[in-house]
């Protein structure tokens, strides 16, 4: 049981890192050259390819400048990740638990480091990993990178909507009654 919990927390932290970095790079598009972008809503597909398997996740992403992010994983498992100003909350209904902690991601560092390449993509290096963001005009389409376990991760965005009204309530997490809350 403890080993399973540790593995689940470790996986959650990896997912959180991916979400935080991606959100930070997307915000770079908003403030690197297009300050008119205030919100982003999209469906996403995340493919993680390892030597043993291919995992495909799907869900929704909400970003509101300058620092509110919500990822809703819908398939194959349900998970919600809330990130705001250095605080991260991960809700995993199947485990009946909420993990709350600080993000180690320095969004400003990521924002300042992402550089436009000749092919129109943006790249940034963070903690030894190179992230490549593909855009279509001002619209982010795909982020790819290789994680610390040599997994190739690709997050593709679909049905991207920019500057739509987003209520702050979308980014507020209220824990369901009876879930375990783990402070990290």
From TrEMBL:
PANTHER family from the UniProt entry: OUTER-MEMBRANE LIPOPROTEIN CARRIER PROTEIN
InterPro entries (UniProt xref): LolA/LolB/LppX (IPR029046), OM_lipoprot_carrier_LolA-like (IPR004564)
Recorded superkingdom: Bacteria
Annotated protein name in UniProt: Outer-membrane lipoprotein carrier protein
Keywords carried by this UniProt record: Membrane, Signal, Transmembrane, Transmembrane helix
CDD domains associated with the record: LolA (cd16325)
Signal peptide: none
TM segment ranges: 12-31
């Amino acid at each position: 049981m403890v080993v399973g919990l540790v593995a689940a927390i470790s996986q959650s932290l990896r997912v959180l890192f991916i979400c935080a970095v991606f959100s930070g790079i997307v915000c770079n598009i908003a403030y690197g050259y297009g300050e008119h972008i205030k919100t982003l809503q999209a469906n996403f597909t995340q493919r993680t390819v390892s030597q043993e398997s291919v995992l495909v996740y799907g869900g929704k992403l909400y970003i509101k400048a300058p620092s509110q992010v919500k990822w809703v994983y819908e398939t194959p498992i349900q998970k919600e990740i809330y990130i705001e100003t250095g605080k991260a909350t991960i809700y995993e209904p199947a485990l009946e638990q909420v993990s709350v902690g600080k993000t180690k991601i320095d969004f400003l560092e990521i924002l300042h480091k992402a550089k436009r390449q000749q092919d129109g993509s943006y790249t940034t290096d963070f903690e030894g990993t190179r992230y490549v963001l593909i855009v279509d005009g001002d619209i982010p389409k795909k982020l790819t990178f290789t994680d610390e376990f040599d997994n190739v991760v690709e997050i593709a965005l679909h049905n991207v909507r920019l500057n739509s009204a987003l209520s702050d309530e979308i980014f507020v997490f209220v824990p369901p009654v009876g879930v375990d809350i783990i402070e990290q």
